[in-house]
Amino acid sequence: SFCISPFSFFQSNPLAAEMLYTAVRTWVRKLAPTEVYDLYGGCGSIALSCADSVSHLWSIESVAGASEDGARKAAQNQVDNVTFVTAPVKQWLRRHVPRSPDSEVYILDPPRSGLHPRVIETLVAAGPRHVIYISCNPVRFTHEMQALGETYAAVHAEGYDFFPHTPHVELLCVLRRK
Q: What is the DSSP letter of 111?
C-alpha cells in the first residue's frame, strides 16, 4: 500500500508505473545484486517493489517529505531492509564508497532535467557492474549515454507509454559495465 504526501512524487499513470516497476524488479532479480542503490528514489516505489530481491536497498532522495513517505510505507508493509536517505544524489555519491561494485546495482530515475555531469562522472568512477536507468526524457538520455557509453553498454531498452496520445514515453535501459 502507498501513502503519498503533497511533496512526494508518484507517477501519474499507476497502471503503466506498475508495469515499469515490475520490469525493474525482474531485472533486479535477474542481476541478483547484494545491494541496490535507488538514486532519485522519490517516495520509495521502486525500492519497495525490489526490496525482497536483495539483502539491502538504499533509496536516496533530496526531498525530505518523499523520503519520509517511503520510510512510512516500508514500516506499514513490514519491509526492514530499505534505508531511506534524504540527500542530494550528487552529494551522497561523493561520500559513498562502493563496497563491491560487482555485486551492486544502481537504479537511476532522475527528473526530466537528467543527471548532473558530476553524477555521471562519479557514477562512472564508482563503476557498478549494472545500472538500471529510467528516463522520462529519452532525448536527454541519449546525450548522457555519450558520457556513459565509454564505460557502459546498453543491454536492454524498452519504452513505457505513461501519457497516451502524447509524444512522451518513459525509457527503461539496462546498462552493463564494459
A: -
C-alpha grid cell, residue 92: 551522497
How far apart, in Å, do the first and last CA atoms of the chain sit? 38
**Full-model pTM:** 0.92
CA separation, residue 104 to residues 28, 29, 37, 87, 128 (Å): 10, 12, 8, 20, 6
User: 57 versus 94: which is more confidently predicted?
Assistant: 57
State pLDDT tens for residues 130-164.
999 999 999 999 999 999 999 999 999 999 988 88
Examine the residue annotation and report whether 3 is marked as an active-site residue of this protein: no
Confidence label for 7 from pLDDT (cuts 50, 70 and 90): low
In the chain, DSSP assigns E strands to: 35-39, 56-61, 82-86, 104-108, 130-135, 152-160, 170-177
From the list 43, 50, 136, 173, the catalytic residue is 136
The angle formed by the CA atoms of residues 87, 162 and 39, to the nearest 5 degrees, is 20
Label residue 11 by pLDDT band (50, 70, 90). low
